[in-house]
Amino acid sequence: MHRSKDELDSLARSQLAELEGKSLSMKDRGQIPVQEMPTQEPEQRIHNMDEVATGYTESQVKVEALRCLQCKNKPCVQGCPVAIDIPAFIAKAAQGDFAGATETIKQSSLLPAICGRVCPQESQCQKFCTVGKMHKDVDQAVAIGRIERFVADWTRENGCDKLPEIAPPTGKKVAVVGSGPASISAAADLRRAGHEVVMFEALHKAGGVLVYGIPEFRLPKAIVQKELDNLTAMGVHIELDFLVGRTRTLSDLMTKDGFSAVFVGSGAGLPKFMSIPGENYIGVFSANEYLTRSNLMKAYDVGKSHTPLFESHKVAVFGGGNVAMDAARTAIRLGADEVTIVYRRTEAEMPARKEEVAHAKEEGIRFLFLHAPLKIEADDKGRVTGVELIACELGEPDASGRRSPVEIPGTERVEAFDTVIVAIGNASNPLIKQTTPGIETNRRGNFIVDEETCETSIPGVYAGGDIVLGAATVILAMGQGRKAAKAMNRYLATL
Hints:
Blueprint: H1 5-19, H2 26-30, H3 42-45, H4 58-66, H5 86-94, H6 98-106, H7 112-118, H8 130-135, H9 144-157, E1 173-177, H10 181-192, E2 196-200, H11 209-212, H12 221-234, E3 237-239, H13 250-255, E4 261-264, E5 270-271, E6 284-286, H14 287-295, E7 314-318, H15 322-333, E8 338-343, H16 354-362, E9 366-369, E10 371-378, E11 384-397, E12 403-407, E13 413-416, E14 419-422, E15 426-427, H17 431-434, E16 461-463, H18 466-469, H19 474-493
Parallel strand pairs: 1-2, 1-4, 2-3, 4-16, 6-14, 7-8, 7-14, 8-9
Antiparallel strand pairs: 5-15, 10-11, 11-12, 11-13
Helix pairs in contact: 1-4, 4-5, 4-9, 5-6, 5-9, 6-9, 7-9, 10-12, 10-19, 14-15
């Protein structure tokens, strides 16, 4: 049953009236029901790009915060890549000190409004929550991400956001390549230390994957822009339409332009394809292109957009991660009649967040599990008409414990589609590697860095985020950005 925000708030108010002022035992707290996230109705939201999850109310966040047991050993913190003091910020949220809660988070994480929305909490902090373990169900864990989102939004909307203090100028100039989460974190910490920081973004808008990759209905772009505005208010200069490797090389930045150190956070923006016949037909997109056209170039705003909207009726999306969910849910909003996610394994193996899968199902997305595409078919004009599929079964677990899909001969069939979106992951953009002699990469093209400092094989050049990790979470990328900045500050102090 889908309940409105007003209904959920009314229920939370009643619960809060019963709970506030009482001395709650661990058992009492464990029995408080998890607060449901208010959302737009599915039949309404598939016709707009507004955020699907509309956020907890104040009463809901207080009730949810009271579920926290305030464990002395803080198991949730071990699941957080940047080690936020989770019990401390939740305790402040329970007391209604939302600005204080945000301040606690920001000691470790600079982007709580973003991470609260897009991090896979069920496989990070909430995975270790004692309340979830009491119920033997991670879905019953304290909703850490939802509380984080609320306090960050409240702080921003009430003008309580504080800019960090900036140390006196050091006279050192630092370049930051890219403007995604790793770069934002690195730039902020480097600027706080008093260095002059210039951020170089290849596209016409800053924000990296936060802007071009994640749809508006999951992460409103105004929130990302606010974080970028904070950076510029701190004194970070952002250069747009500046492609490092073409406009200038890394070597140019360091030998000709006076930068003492460089952080590379250029992400993993090179889409992977499946190498099956037909991937060059009209109507086949990488998820990168498809989402960039919608998110960054607003293809859905017909008549005002600077890119055309490709008209689709029956869409196939290959993949099972968050990007596949984003592409499928975007296709529905762009007017497709039917969208099918084709995934080689079962739902249990899908890497996408549970919430995104649930939302996709509510929006009418069809899931075709244990199937793999063999080839894409087209008409005599080269336009996609269908996909030949084959059924699969899961084989024995490999060394990592993951069961590989095995194709079942004789189960081939063709399904009609007019659009195919390939969402099977990304590789690192090879441009910087190709134009930077001496930079070491692995076989996937990811930069090889020192695990503790994030320094590359070139002294003074550091890297973090997807360019190092491959496709990773926002908070993992942020963690690397902060780790690199700390090491860079030490390095710069020696010059």
